[in-house]
Amino acid sequence: MSFTFRPFSSKQRQLLNWWRPGSGYADRRIVLADGAIRSGKTVAMILSFLLWSLDSFRGQDFILAGVTSGALARNVLGPMTAMLETLGIPAEWKRGEGRLIIGGNSYYLFGADKDNAQDKLQGMTAAGAYADEAALFPRSFIDQMIGRCSVEGSRIFLNCNPNGAYHYLKTDFIDRADEIGLYRLHFTMDDNLTLSPRIRESYARSFSGVFYRQYILGEWVSAEGAVYPMWDDSANTFLREERAEEDLPFRGMRRFCAVDYGTVNPCVFLDVRDDGRTFWIMNEYYWDSAARRRQKTDAEYADDLAAFLDGDRNIQVIVDPSAASFKAELRNRGFRVLDAKNDVREGIATTAVLIGSRLVRADRKRCPALLREIHSYVWDDKARQRGEERPLKDHDHAMDALRYLCHTRATRFRR
Ligand SMILES: Nc1ncnc2c1ncn2[C@@H]1O[C@H](COP(=O)(O)OP(=O)(O)OP(=O)(O)O)[C@@H](O)[C@H]1O
Ligand SMILES: [Mg+2]
Q: How would you classify the pairing of strands 267-274 and 279-287?
């Protein structure tokens, strides 16, 4: 596959040429391109990194890192091999060694999520490194990666979407750019000349709240206060009785059940109908073993679930992946069990869009725990000070079930 280069924006050209003598920034060692999604950071950075490394070195080792090896293959290697083909530069892939050979240099591939990723880095002496989506890497990986670049003239290329205001890339890299020799380029969607207004709008509609500010506006802002401030007590609820004439359509809809399993902690089931557009949360089950002073066994929970779903077994049950014993119990009883997608950040972003678009609605009378939790579900202040963005783990069980539902089933909203 070849890559069709389109005209680069002036921001992209700055990223392409920053390392060249005379650019004004060639004395910097690190470049960091941050900003909005789809703003042209990765395309320009891959080409910049390739041209720089081929121009400056031969026979050296380089690091190519992604959040996971899958993400690296998709977001970086795909476009990179296509560009090499267009440019007529041969590349050889040594699968067993996890490296690409280009122009006599070796480019070693890393997924930053692997526990042993840093160990593999440890033995290396590199002339340069490229990290895609660097804000999602553990800091230890980034530090180790920079530490490995000890060859004279080495450079480090980082790109990412913004994260919280206390993230280490903001406080220790961007805010200290001059001190640490970092050249920062901030991208907006205007910096990608290939984006049509229609595509831009559809991206903008896919995010709301803090994610809109981070992913669309490109700001390093922390999530504070309510996780779902866009929830509206009338627009996001309904009452089954008030829709009596529509009860028949409810019956014809696809039905799911989302489960947040807990033994010591509360256990939640949500009974959901999907009309292809809106998730109607018809009913909830909430068992708080601490408050009730009695823990239930998996068999008891499975009995409760069967009763809760009126004996209907032909229903997809979405369960948090960690609940292994409960999933086995459900499978034994003939339920169709699906592992929930468990990524908290992405899951909350998807749920927020669905709530903001009023595509999630809960029965006012039958979902009291969900309605209580949604108003008390807030971002964790203490975690934020440490640079981590996550909700306070308190009264969050219906919230987890809701997130599993939205993130696992709402394929049409995922980017
Ligand atoms: N100069 C260019 N020539 C051809 N296509 C381009 C160019 N610049 C951007 N694009 C197109 O725009 C898309 C988005 O660009 P890119 O992947 O670099 O954005 P990004 O800022 O890395 O986005 P994200 O933050 O979502 O990873 C690319 O997939 C590519 O199709
Ligand atoms: Mg990118």
A: antiparallel
Q: In sequence order, what are the residues at sequence separation of 6 or more whose Cβ sits closer than 8 angstroms to the Cβ of residue 23?
A: 14, 17
pLDDT of residue 121: 87
Structure tokens that stand for 190 in this block: 């205007």
One domain for residues 244 and 166: no
Residues 322 and 267 in one domain: yes
Query: The domain spanning residue 113 has which CATH number?
Result: 3.40.50.300
Indicate whether 275 belongs to any domain: yes
Distance 371 CA to ligand 2 centre (A): 37
> For residue 4, which atom of ligand 1 is closest to its CA?
4
186 and 274 both lie in a single domain: no
Per-residue pLDDT of 102-155, as tens digits, reads 999 999 999 998 767 777 788 899 999 999 999 999 999 999 999 999 999 999
Task: Give the number of other CB atoms < 10 A from CB of residue 51.
Answer: 17
Structural domain containing residue 401 = 237-413
- When divided into structural domains, the chain yields a total of 2
Statement to judge: residues 112 and 255 lie in one domain: no
Average of pLDDT values for 220-227?
Answer: 92
CA of 8 to the centre of ligand 1 (A): 10
Task: State pLDDT tens for residues 57-113.
Answer: 999 999 999 999 999 999 999 999 999 999 999 999 998 888 999 999 999 999 998
Q: Does residue 41's CB lie within 6 angstroms of at least one atom of ligand 1?
A: yes
Structure tokens that stand for 170 in this block: 């903001």
pTM, two decimals, is 0.82
| Dihedral in degrees, nearest 10, Cα atoms 43, 49, 51, 54 | -140
CATH classification at residue 372: 3.30.420.280
Residue 315 Cα to chain centre, angstroms = 28
Tokens 């530069």: give the residue: 89
Q: Ligand 1 within 6 A of 144 CB?
A: no
Q: Is residue 227 part of a domain?
A: no
Q: How far apart are CA 70 and CA 25, in angstroms?
A: 33
